[in-house]
Write a structure and sequence with these properties.
Elements lengths: L14 H10 L1 H12 L11 E5 L56 E5 L1 H8 L17 E11 L9 H14 L5 H16 L5 H20 L10 E10 L2 E9 L6 H21 L2 E9 L3 E4 L1 H6 L9 H14 L6 E8 L8 H12 L5 E7 L11 H12 L3 E6 L5 H8 L8
Parallel strand pairs: 5-6, 5-8, 8-9, 9-10
Antiparallel strand pairs: 1-2, 3-4, 6-7
Helix pairs in contact: 5-6, 9-10, 10-11
């Protein structure tokens, strides 16, 4: 017996070659993926990543004859300039092909598209989330019973009295089932007819027939019939047990320039895609603050031009309000990243530390503070916020504070915060 496989090739028909290529060009792909990440929005990094890598990484080894392989004779037709023994001058530089070769022609970079899983595997292969005390990662799902209407069969414990009585009432009205008051009135009319002098035999006979019909109809039409019964129906629906919310808190006062906001955006972007890797559902909450704080969308968070003074505690208070309103800690893993240039009124730092230590950190899995800008440039030393947060970072393991001065520091700081060898207690 011969079996012929006529199925069409899948999109992954070159999967083996693709994996070998990714292993060979891993360093170039990882570097290009980091650069591509900088150009995307925070909530757009979950998709595929189109990256460009140098053609130098695509070179294949080749074998050829060396210069000492012996004497070889060539016949070159059309030669009118050289004879045996002449020295041929070296060609001018820049004539060959290659990326960036002088004034000559070059090759374009190789464009390569990474899937979501490939990108995340490369980018976060040796990182992990700290303080995962509630749930396991990635694949866990629990089933939750959810209401799914009504059914005509079920156990007595699932009987829905309201829906059953509604059906019973509709049926009794449709079949004109007499009430006790109607029967009592018919009995009173019959007694009155019998008591008349002289009695009207025809009237008494008619009233008697009507009374018997009402009594029979009441017995024939049951108060509750099996056809009226309705039972609550439930079905099991999968519910993710691994869900997280990331709070992005950023100072947008006058001292936070666009370059500083860009540094903050890049850190928030890394944190968002990292959480997406480990959780099935990730909500992102954006809170911006000057002397007042408010929850906004992503566009307003990074692009709004309103500025003002700085009171950091307002952002922490707004975060606490949002948690109380929408994200119960028993159901959500809560993460937060706060970005600031370190400016704040000195009188507010005690309130900030108190809010963090007593109200927010007990609810959070991890809280990272990123101070953007050149350290100490504003005050000739440590900033107000840095001086207030540093002792707290030493006391509480789930709180970390780092300083970032340029874009090149973002990824090293992120890896420092989420390194795989960190404790997960």
């Amino acid at each position: 017996m011969q079996i012929t496989d006529r199925r069409l090739n899948t999109k992954g028909k070159s999967l083996g070659n693709r994996q070998r290529f990714m292993r060979r060009a891993k360093a170039e792909i990882r570097s290009a993926a980091r650069e591509a990440l900088k150009k995307r929005k925070i909530t757009e990094v979950e998709g595929s990543q189109k990256i460009s890598i140098s053609t130098k990484s695509l070179g294949e080894p080749s074998f050829g004859l060396g210069s000492d392989s012996g004497s070889r004779d060539f016949v070159l037709p059309g030669n009118k300039d050289f004879t045996v023994g002449d020295t041929i001058a070296k060609p001018p530089s820049g004539g060959g092909s290659g990326s960036g070769a002088g004034d000559g022609s070059g090759d374009d970079d190789f464009v390569f598209t990474l899937t979501k899983e490939e990108f995340l595997d490369l980018f976060f292969e040796d990182l992990k989330l700290p303080n995962l005390v509630k749930v396991q990662l990635k694949s866990l799902k629990s089933s939750k019973l959810a209401r799914a209407g009504f059914t005509t069969e079920g156990s007595p414990s699932r009987l829905n009295p309201a829906r059953t009585m509604r059906n019973s009432l509709a049926r009794r009205l449709a079949l004109n089932r007499p009430s006790l008051e109607r029967i009592a009135k018919a009995e009173a009319d019959l007694e009155a007819a019998v008591a008349q002098t002289p009695p009207d035999a025809a009237l008494i006979a008619e009233l008697t027939r009507q009374l018997e019909h009402l009594r029979h109809l009441r017995k024939a039409v049951a108060f509750v019939d099996p056809i009226d019964l309705r039972y609550n129906r439930h079905e099991r629906r999968p519910q993710p047990t691994t869900q997280a919310v990331m709070f992005c808190l950023m100072d947008v006062s006058a001292s936070m320039t666009e370059p500083l906001k860009d540094l903050a955006k890049r850190f928030f972007m890394l944190l968002n895609v990292f959480l997406t890797r480990h959780y099935r559902e990730v909500d992102v909450v954006f809170i911006r603050h000057t002397t007042e704080a408010q929850e906004v969308d992503q566009s307003t968070f990074f692009e709004a031009t309103a500025t003002g003074g700085t009171v950091v505690s307002t952002a922490l208070e707004e975060m606490k309000k949002v948690i109380d309103a929408r994200y119960p800690p028993r159901d959500w893993n809560i993460y937060a990243a706060q970005a600031s240039d370190g400016h704040n009124v000195s009188e507010d730092m005690h309130q900030c530390v108190t809010l963090l230590e007593q109200d927010l950190l007990p609810l959070c899995q991890y809280f990272a503070y990123i101070e953007v800008g050149h350290p100490g440039s504003s005050y000739g030393g440590e900033s107000v916020v840095w001086r207030g947060y540093t002792p707290l970072a030493k006391r509480v393991s789930k709180f970390a504070a780092r300083q970032v001065s340029d874009a090149g520091d973002i990824y090293p700081v992120f890896r420092d915060l989420f390194a795989a060898e960190k404790s997960t207690s």
